[in-house]
Design brief:
This protein is an alpha+beta fold and 143 residues long. Helix content is 26%, strand content 38%. It has a single domain (5-135), classed as Roll (Thiol Ester Dehydrase, Chain A), CATH 3.10.129. A 6-stranded antiparallel β-sheet has the order 1-2-4-5-6-3. The chain is globular. The mean pLDDT is 97. This is Hydroxyphenylacetyl-CoA thioesterase PaaI.
Length: 143
């Protein structure tokens, strides 16, 4: 009897998280993962702020990109980004917990599209991100 889709997503995420030094260094947590979905978050610290004393856009992008990565890698297939875009709608403020929720829009062959919403603890949308993925050779774990 094989693993369920949920178990495959969890095991894929565990394998990726073990090697994801960038997300951990940023102070990020992987809060949830499922087939085609993932949630990441971090609290904006002083070291995340820019010259306007708000969260640097690169960190918000990284938060969204990590959620995207865990969502598109949730099928025990190695997937990488083809291209990503982000629209910043509100600033992330010092001390706020930002959460990125990724959801799969579609997968076709080796390509996928994922939307990620970054919001603050009050549910206000900080940014919207769209990522395009491409499956490459390899697996996260042996099934």
């Amino acid at each position: 009897m094989g693993l369920s889709a949920e178990e495959i997503a969890q095991r894929s995420a565990q394998a990726m998280w073990a090697r994801d030094d960038a997300s951990k260094w940023l102070g990020m947590s992987l809060d949830a993962v499922g087939p085609g979905t993932a949630t990441t978050s971090f609290t904006v610290g002083k070291h995340h702020t820019n010259g306007h004393d708000i969260c640097h856009g690169g960190y918000i992008f990284t938060l969204a990109d990590s959620a995207f990565a865990f969502a598109c890698n949730s099928y025990n297939q190695l997937a990488v980004a083809q291209h990503n875009t982000i629209s910043f709608l509100r600033p992330g403020k010092l001390g706020e917990r930002l959460t990125a929720v990724a959801r799969e829009v579609t997968r076709a062959g080796r390509s996928g599209l994922y939307d990620v919403t970054v919001s603050d603890a009050a549910g206000k949308v900080i940014a919207e991100f769209r990522g395009a993925s491409r499956v490459i050779d390899g697996r996260h774990f042996e099934e």
